[in-house]
Amino acid sequence: MRRMAIMSNTQLIELQKLFNFKSGIASNSVEREHSKISENHIHFIRPSHKQNTSIDAFVDKRFIDDKYIFPADTIYVSTNGQGSHTFSYVSTEVFVPNSDIYVLLPKQKMSIEEKLYYAFCITKNRYRFNYNRKPKGDRIKKVLVPALMPNEWKQVVNIETIAKITKPAQNLPTPELKTAEWATYRFDELFEVKKGKRLVEADFEQGDTPFVAAIDKNNGYRDHIGQDAIHEGNTITVSYNGSVGEAFYQPKPFYASDDINVLYPKFKLVPSIALFLAVIIRKEKYRFNYGRKWDSNRMKVSFLKLPTKNRQPDWDFMTNFVQTLPFSSQV
Predict the structure, then answer these.
(1) Does any domain span residue 211?
(2) Could you report how far apart the first and last alpha carbons of the chain are, in Å?
């Protein structure tokens, strides 16, 4: 309630009076890496409902036009995605946005507190948009926001706390991914593969159980329902229909649709390992399509290529790799 009051007690003006808008670059026009393999590699940003997952990959700034490279402490806004549109953040590092991102450059000098304030205000306007009415062009530029940041905002925002959130869990260099030295493992060696269960939207009840469907955003959450969870947490979900191959770590119990395979680990799974595996699983999606679905039988005999040590998956390497990435202190 207090924050909403902060937005309303001042003159309102259009966003375009405060900011210049810049667009990002198409994802298929850049070469992306999963890790910061050199000092020249910087964040490549995509739409997301959370700032940490808006970091899609790393790109080499030497091969990017300067007009697409933006400094730390810059506002960026998601313009696409049913579960991601209009979410706004302030960058923590130099970055390149994809084409579903607007970058907002202040027309006058702004403090970091002011930028965080306007990112908050933009996100609060999310209800004005949807997948068919995206926050693009004049729609977003003419959104009304307070002309000035109220003094009370400084009591709400703690810059030191925000800075801590973005830090890695380990302040060490990110290990190199020597994929040529990795080994292959069958899915059924690592996981017990279980299926979701069909549930149509007309039968949804109101509640708090995550409903995981075959979508590529929002951790696979399509909705929250009143039905009991049918799968345990600390598992990985993989779509085999719709958005084939999209993989997400599920930390708590959930209901999965019949388009979902659920991977129950045969090893000790922790969040950092799960996040590493989810990325590797997504890399296999090119092998499958609507005519060749990645159903549970096919998945069981599929292979994953993973870091290895002593002829076993190198779980320690996976953990250490993830824990050197930005925001991993929050995992």
Answers:
(1) yes
(2) 29
* pLDDT tens digits, 279-303: 999 988 888 876 778 889 999 999 9
pLDDT at 157: 61
The reply to whether 187 and 250 lie within a common domain is yes
Q: Give the angle subtended at the CA of 30 by the CAs of 24 and 35, to the nearest 5°.
A: 105
**SS3 call for 144:** strand
Residue 273: pLDDT band (50, 70, 90) is very high
Q: Is the dihedral of CA 205, 208, 212, 213 positive or negative?
A: positive
CA distances 225 to 136, 206, 214, 231, 282, Å, are: 31, 5, 16, 14, 26
User: C-alpha angle with apex 18: 79 to 104, nearest 5 degrees?
Assistant: 35
- Alpha helices of the chain — where are they, by DSSP H? 2-8, 15-18, 112-124, 138-141, 153-156, 159-165, 187-190, 271-282, 296-300, 315-323
- Same domain flag for 313 and 216: yes
Q: Are residues 19 and 44 in the same domain?
A: yes
7 and 156: one domain? yes
Look up the domain containing 77 and give its range: 2-165
CA angle at 47 for the pair 45 and 52, rounded to the nearest 5°: 65
With contact defined as beta carbons under 8 Å apart, do 73 and 91 qualify? yes
Number of structural domains the chain divides into = 2
* Contact between residue 135 and residue 171 where contact means Cβ atoms under 8 Å apart: no
Indicate the helix (H) or strand (E) that contains 148: none
The one-letter code for the residue type at 219 is N
As a whole number of angstroms, the distance between CA 231 and CA 260 comes to 11
Query: How far is residue 47's CA from residue 25's CA, in Å, rounded to a whole number?
Result: 13
Whether 170 maps to a domain, the answer reads no
Give the mean model confidence (pLDDT) for residues 14-18: 96
Q: Which of 104, 138, 165 is the last residue of a domain?
A: 165
Q: Are strands 209-212 and 221-225 parallel, antiparallel or unpaired?
A: antiparallel
